Amino acid sequence: MRRYIRALLLCTVFAVFSGLYVYSKLFNTDVSAGGHGARRAFIPLRGTGGRRGSAVRAGPQKPHWYNRYIMRQSGGVEDAGSGVRRRPEPTMHLAVVACGERLKETLTMIKSAVLFSVKRLYLHVFAEDQLHASFVGTLESWPDSFRSRFNYTVYSISFPSENAGEWKKLFKPCASQRLFLPLILKDIDSIVYVDSDILFLQPVDGLWDFLSQFSPSQLAAMSPEHEEPRIAWYSRFARHPFYGRTGINSGVMLMNMTRMRSTFFKNDMTRVGLRWEELLMPLLQKYKLNITWGDQDLLNIIFHHNPEFLLEFPCKWNYRPDHCIYGSNCASAEEDGIYVLHGNRGVYHDYKQPAFRAVYEAIKKYSFGSDPVASLLDPLTEELLKTTHTYCGKSNALFTKRLALSLENINRKTPHGR
After folding, report:
1. Which PANTHER family does this entry report, sorted A to Z (predicted)?
2. Are 249 and 385 in the same domain?
3. In whole angstroms, what is the distance from residue 95 CA to residue 126 CA?
């Protein structure tokens, strides 16, 4: 009998200590915002006394090539006086890469995105380390009425260490960083990537809505490189496979990164499908002597072999000088106006395409809180009328058609003055 009592006591003691151990583990566990193993970082919320935008090193326990700096993020929002945390509103994720002298151009792109968007934005800015302080300083200087519309993270440029130099120099400095977003941003489901020379003339929301149009197999969306195969670059000059009749342009790219990480891609190197991280380097090694436009060419090769994975959106979402330099050839922009302006080939910074430069200068010079019609639209319209000696200038109405509607919307909701 004593033997049974002793056994019962031992079991009871063991159960008590086991319960205490489990409780202590639960008590000390960090709850990650956003799920899927987000990296831990303490970020002071507004009004708590911490410096906004302060850099906090965060990353996995074992060093890896995609370590990053967390500059600004927040979780739920606390109702004033109630102490109850509300679930944060739905967020759109927007990524951009900035290297060299792209700081002002990138900030102007971000300004256009914040100015017009309806839903909250989370900006993922990949930049050389010497640009980080300038990004943080500028973004934190914006008026609260606009600064409250977005959070952001500034990351260091990072490539797989064994081939970092080769990737960084592909086409333009750091441009190929976009290929590695699904591997770096493992906690993010979907994202809009844009080049730094993009300007939004309509809310990012419309582009984000294409995600709901994806078929079960589609995992990315881009626009065609050109509308007319007879004068398109890929159909005339490419020495590698490309998507469709004219290729695709990667300056504006919508990605479902969850699908990209889990999909096996057909290719012309093996008989079996390869995952995204397995595909990139072999593809570069095979085609590096035949590609001209770097990572964009690699994307064309990938989607040439996997066309069912790609959704095409109209050229009005990625309007470039090619759409007007020899006469207007973007039907969707002719009908609805330009939604997203892409000033590739440096046209914002020279006088070869003054209509594109005029839009860039107007948004760059606009002061937050001032009357958007009087301070942005009217001066821009006046400048565009000076560009009618060019083919793109002859289509100047397309540059302001959608912009005017977007400015009407912000004029209704934004108080003037800081």
Report:
1. GLUCOSIDE XYLOSYLTRANSFERASE 1 (PTHR46012:SF3), IP22168P (PTHR46012)
2. no
3. 8
Query: To which H or E segment does residue 257 belong?
Result: helix 257-262
Residues 254-275 have pLDDT tens digits of: 999 999 999 999 999 999 999 9
- Quickly list H helices, 97-156: 103-116, 132-141, 144-147
User: How many secondary structure helices (H) and strands (E) does the chain include?
Assistant: 17, 13
Q: Which of 89, 147, 138, 140 is nearest to 114 (CA)?
A: 147
Q: Which helix (H) or strand (E) holds 356?
A: helix 354-365
pLDDT tens-digit readout, 334-385: 999 999 999 999 999 999 999 999 999 999 999 999 999 999 999 999 999 9
Judgement on whether residues 103 and 240 belong to the same structural domain of the protein: yes
Q: Are residues 355 and 235 in the same domain?
A: no
pTM for the structure as a whole? 0.81
CA distance 171 to 294: 5
Q: How far is CA 189 from the centre of its chain?
A: 12
Classify residue 35: in a domain, yes or no: no
Buried b (16+ CB within 10 A) or exposed e, 101-131: ebbbbbbbbbbbbbbbbeeebbbbbbbbeeb
DSSP assignment of 41-77 equals: ---PPTTSSSPTT--EEE--SS--TT-EEE-B----E
The H or E element that residue 121 is part of is strand 120-127
Residue of 380, 401, 409 whose CA lies nearest to 333: 401
| Structural domain harbouring 338 | 319-413
Asked if 311 contacts 296 with a C-beta cutoff of 8 angstroms, the reply is no
How many residues in total does the chain contain? 418
Residue 298 lies in a domain: yes
Does some domain include residue 11? no
- C-alpha distances (whole Å) from 270 to each of 57, 98, 242, 410 are 39, 34, 18, 52
**Which tokens go with 122?**
């989370």
Are 308 and 350 members of one domain? no
Task: Check if the beta carbon of residue 14 is closer than 8 Å to that of residue 29.
Answer: no
333 neighbors 315 (Cβ within 8 angstroms): yes
Domain shared by 277 and 370, yes or no: no
Q: Residue 368 — φ and ψ, nearest 5°?
A: -55, 135
pLDDT exceeds 70 at position 293? yes
Total domains present in the chain: 2
